[in-house]
User: What shape does this take?
Amino acid sequence: MPRRPRAETRPGPGRHTPVERGWPDGRAAAFSVLEAVELKGGSSNALLSEIETPDERERHLATTLVYGVLRQRRVLDRLIERSSRRPLHEIDPAVLIATRLGLYQVLFLTRVPRAAAVNEAVALVRAHRGRGAAAFANAVLRSACRSLDDGRNPASLLPDESLDPVAFLAEKYSYPRFLVARFLARFGRAGCEELLVTCNRPAPLVLRVARGAGDGETVARALRQEGIETLPSPVLPGALRVVRGAPQRTRLFREGMIYIQDEAAQIVPRLLFPIDPEAGLLDLCAAPGGKLLATAEMLRPGARIVAADISVTRLRLLDDNARRMRATGILRVVSDMQRPAIGAQFARVLLDAPCSGTGVIRRHPEIRWRRSEEDIALSAGMQEQALFAAADLLTSGGRLVYSVCSLEPEEGPRRVMALVERRTDLRLLDARTLLPPGLHSLVDDQGCLVTLPHRDDVDGFFAAVLEMR
Assistant: This one.
């Protein structure tokens, strides 16, 4: 029987010392990001964008490690539990994160020497938790490596699919069981597996070209001069997909000529048009502003535009983007979407509601570990209340566009059907009447916009257009 690794030493006063010296290397940066994600509820996407290093190779390594560990966490934890012979909750969180980092490199980054991956992980633990914890991490990683050498790879540890297909897919593709059960029921075995595989791959980085920047080809040429390679979007004419480089560090980005936004999110604002500038546009959940700013730049100066969100802090996110995109004339209002304190009506209302985010797991892999059935039910309840409140803000003949970046029926079609059943003064419009023919394949039989990552290679979105009779 293999020896159980010695328990790690918990940190004491003065024991925590940072790994970084000057600019952080990729592994140290990845550790810091994962610690903030796992222990403080941070966003991997936002934290990675804040890494300060002049070395793009280290930035790329940190990004690969963070997203890889979050996507493969269940696979990694299964091996760590087996190799340590203790439940995960008994392992210090920082030690667990560093061990995941080392094991991920051993399993998935074949160009990284195994010894280097193990030694770097152990060094991280030693710097953050001391020698005792480092010895524990070293023993766990070397035990895992011996298991791999003996042919006991992650696939050999999978449950029997014939007995429990949900458990099999959850373990194989590293997802919580409840999400796999949902996807399996909705998409079937083949569709579910395709979705799981797709959401374990990096999502394309997509750019919206601002109205005053010229056409996509012109912007692509300008970006190429700054070292950014792009291709035209295969989904949305005019949008660009980044092949190489970081567009957020270009002059065009700083000057508001481009905005980072997935194609599905770019389509939603098109459902608001045509808009009478004087009749008004209200965005009830405006921050960070991508959809509102895309709409506002198509309206003439002096249009009545109101941006609402739940806090001043969130509206500041909108302010930052509005300044960069040179958008003016937007009235900001602090307001709760469920009880909007807005004493006016509008011809167009956008409710891009907070949701479970299961449609953007490719971009935010930690979402899968933060959601539960209870979270989805809670989101659906808030969305229902917000929808009824939004409907009260419509003028006669006005339109409400409701959207969520969720794959869950409770947050999308069921919310809309519940609204029109109780509000007979609203009718559901067919989105095909508002979108160009090239996008009609993204509209379902009920006339709602529905995009799926594994089918359309864009973020998962649901959007519906409701008109006041």
Observations:
- The chain has four domains: 26-154, 158-199, 205-260, 263-468.
- Residues 26-154 form a domain with the N-utilizing Substance Protein B Homolog; Chain A fold (CATH 1.10.940.10).
- Confidence is low (pLDDT under 50) at residues 1-22.
